[in-house]
Amino acid sequence: MRIVVDDNVPAAEACFGELGRLVRLPGREIGLDALCNADALVVRSITRLDETLIDEAMAAGARLRFVGTCTIGTDHVDQEALARHGIGFASAPGCNAAAVVDYVLSSLLTLAEYQGWRLTDRRVGIVGVGNVGGRLLARLSAMGIECLACDPPRVDRAGSTGIEGMGVESTKGFTDLDTLIDQCDVLCLHTPLVSDGPHPTHHLLDAQRIAQLVPGTVLLNAGRGDCVDGLALRSRLAGPGDISAVLDVWETEPGIDGALRDLVNLGTPHIAGYSLDGKLRGTHQVYAAMSRHLGLPVRHSLESLLAEPPVAGLTLDGGLEPEDALRLCLRTVYDVRRDHVALYRESRRQGMTSGFDSCRAQYPLRREFGTLRVELRAGANELAPMLEGAGFRVARG
Q1: Which fold has domain 2-91?
Q2: Residue 369: predicted pLDDT
């Protein structure tokens, strides 16, 4: 059995090695030849498997039996085409959701420090309350931050505008996007890319809505790049310059708009979910699905793949403001400024496309907030609610 695997998928040898012969390829090089010569395919979001490619491969005699994507999103894979050819499919829902929430908190606390405001004084609007947005909503609420949420498909499925059952108290229920734009200081996008149907998200923030953003608003997109009209955002930032933007996802990746990159407050190369923990969860979820598809036992546990974090613990005494303590802890684990600088440096050194991909392919190991145990001395116990809400493991003194 020949298994073609994106070379950015960690622990592939440990998981898939016993199932067949592995062939590693860069994600953007997995195309027709790879499909025609593979029994199974394991990809990430940069590999597009559309109907034309799948049909062409099968018409050429491909023996493909299974496709797995080690990502939450699946819009890069035509699942209907796979099903039509009897090819099994699996994704990794929720695998890197915790890492994306870590990214959002790191970005917002960094911006708050730069601009002189406190996150606890802001109202946050979350668009898309799925695996990522739901976790972000829960963490922010646990930190005492007021949130509004917008998720029309979820409202349609639930048949109500309530947010009951999500374990969140500090929200006012689901509302519409224009209300979020009008009432929130921070707007976080965590939606899939949907081009048609009753709730399309392509250019969800179009020129009209970007113009409606209240001066001082922070716009953060860690969902899909095409959900924001990049030209309209560039125009708003280059003109009035009265809003702030944090972008991890972009239109036309990897050849993103250099002018927009230069205007955003924080810009990163689609790495919000790139924690080691999240990647390994994705690998393990697809490995388990492939094993079941082949009728084989799942021999490896996720725990067996995870190593000890480089910094496992931190001790805090009294005297720190809660948000200063939070910055100290989150930067011990992950500092978004590193990724912002890397994108700017490598895109200038190598050119936009190569630099963008280079940052992703050579991304350094990063762990999640939950791997850090924070011990509080007796005088610092007041920090516990903020730190626990953010996702750290806290031991009170």
Answers
A1: Rossmann fold (3.40.50)
A2: 98
